[in-house]
Amino acid sequence: MYRYDSFDQSIVAQRVAQFRDQTRRFLAGQLSEDEFRPLRLQNGLYVQKHAPMLRVAIPYGLLSSPQLRRLAHIARTFDRGYGHFTTRQNIQFNWPQLEDVPDILAELAEVEMHAIQTSGNCIRNTTSDPYAGVAGDELIDPRPWSELVRQWSTLHPEFAFLPRKFKIAVTGATADRVAILVHDIGAQAVRNAAGETGFRVAVGGGQGRTPIIGQVIREFLPGAELLNYFDAILRVYNRFGRRDNKYKARIKILVKEMTPPEFTRRVEAEWDRLRGGPGSVPPAEIARLAAHFADPPYRDLPRASLAYRAALADSRPFSQWASRNVVAHKRTGYAIVTLSLKKTGVPPGDATATQMDAIADLADRYSFGELRVTHEQNLVFADVLQADLYDLWTRLKTQGLATPNIGLLTDIVCCPGGDFCSLANAKSIPIAEAIQRRFDDLDYLHDLGAIELNMSGCMNACGHHHVGNIGILGVDKNGAEWYQISLGGAQGFKASLGKVIGPSFAAAEVPGVIEAIIAAYVEWRHPDEAFIDTLRRIGIDPFKERVYAPAH
Amino acid sequence: MPRLIKDGAVVDDRWTLLPEAYSLTDLPERGAVIVPFALWAAERGALRARGDVGVLLAPENDPADLGSDLAALPVIAVDFPQFTDGRGYSTARLLRERHRYAGELRAVGDVLRDQLYAMAECGFDAFVVREDRDADAALAGLADFDGVYAPTARSPQPWFRRRDDAAATDVWYPQL
Ligand code: SF4
Questions:
Q1: Distance between CA A263 and CA A234 in Å, rounded?
Q2: Which ipTM value was assigned to this complex?
Q3: Would you call A29 an interface residue with chain B, using a CB distance cutoff of 8 Å?
Q4: Which of A178, A211, A526, B103 stands the most exposed, by the fewest C-beta atoms within 10 Å?
Q5: Touching check for A508 and chain B: CB below 8 Å?
Q6: What pLDDT, on the 0 to 100 scale, is given for residue A372?
């Protein structure tokens, strides 16, 4: 993975020093609350319900085992012994003290990590495919490009104070594992007729209170022009995006109000002045970055592991786990493994310091000392020998990390909600748990197959409820916590936004509502038809009827 | 005399900023003044004749609208009504990089120490720090970083072209 050079290191060190001084001046009363807020936000520091919350970037989801151990150490030393992996490949600590944050940042800098721009109205952490470099369906490895974007966006001086936050996702694969169309910019690798590789660029997707699917504004952008084109998009947004109303300040509103053709015209005109200029990326630079992501020393294996096949036949729990949590690797004899952070009773995405240390050890032993964080709030070991899978599974089980539910109904994507977040309308974690408890029959869950359930505690949509096949949104009704259900959302290149099915429900009713939705699916599905496909075929009415049918 | 940061030092400011000047009668008889873009646009002939006049750009003003006046302007001030309004950063880069403006470019308004570094990268060389803040203390903000990755007005070559191991043949020379 990418290793810092002295310049990278000096930038994070200087950011730590700068933030230490800003914190000192704030505590000394030399910076007002209003002046300090944007500064601390640009370093990932919120003031939450109970304490500050610090969000640390995991650029494009890549972590090394020493980095994870450092996160465990921070959780233990400065927090209450756990961290929360978010839907944007970040990790959040919920209980740090403001005075400690500069020290935490210094600890992070030592392992080439930071919290730069994890919040605030600036370019946020760039997200990418958790299967980067190992999936069989890649046109290009997105990691060098993601790192290029990380560097360009870090402290980009022109875009330090945008109208609103700005999220970029990059993928090199033919399947969308990064929710490319719900980002401010989504860049997807494509090949043109001449066989050259470039990017299809979508702009203005997003969730929040005005969910919109991104518009493709350029079908083919030469890779060398990626940063110039991003500069052009950001400049148009920075100059013309609305600043009078924070709910209308995202780029999606600008694209809509300007109209996509006019927005595109302005971007293209701006790019015309930049293209071929100093910001165009020489092939040598991409090659330099790509060298950081060379394959690990794989073994040349002639065939799939026989021991693995035997273990699958022998152990039903193991094969059940493998069917959901293991996917094919580009190399024969290897596998990609997802560690589930969705065990019933544990807040989705949470990991304890003890688990983090254990995961780091397992990564060293089984996956070349690296792991990835997914936007579905799970972890991935990308390079596991098939022959080791049974051993790994046994060890993951003892840590509570082998719940065989990846992509299933109980693999709930969920924001911290009312238990932690001061913006929340309603709690989300207890609802997730109640649903997980209701659906505790593994065989039944596996029979239901892939169902994405996403939940957000308010319309900021950190839990990406708009793109959940089933979406749950916490709403406030006269000071009480209620839940609005939507159906039909989906990620991917054919992303769609869920539709609200009707009046909202009290917390205690939610598991029953999900049950009714699932019952309707079971009744209407064709053999082997996934939930989302049944939903798309028959529409939401049959589900609505089931949910709102008068009780017998 | 009021003070400002210019070329990395705190010095006396001989310019008077007149954000409320709507007509020529609002101007003092003599002395160096900075007038709003609207007044400049309406009275450019008279103002050019007077000499010692600079222009104040609001965030929504397009620097391209200064047209051929640009080269002759001794000073352009860019207003930051709030430090969180980042439009002035784009204005500065456009002035320096696109329109090749070489005169003094000063940041005025809600100008604070913690934004000076980014402003300097975008091409500002003068900073009128907010009145209630100490300009001498703010100077330190200019040294917050040694550089950034992206191409900027101050370093048109991005870091990947400045680094020691950047392939020499790739270096791009701006057409000046
Ligand atoms: S969706 Fe709302 S409640 Fe949930 S984390 Fe985001 S802001 Fe907080």
A1: 11
A2: 0.95
A3: no
A4: A526
A5: no
A6: 98
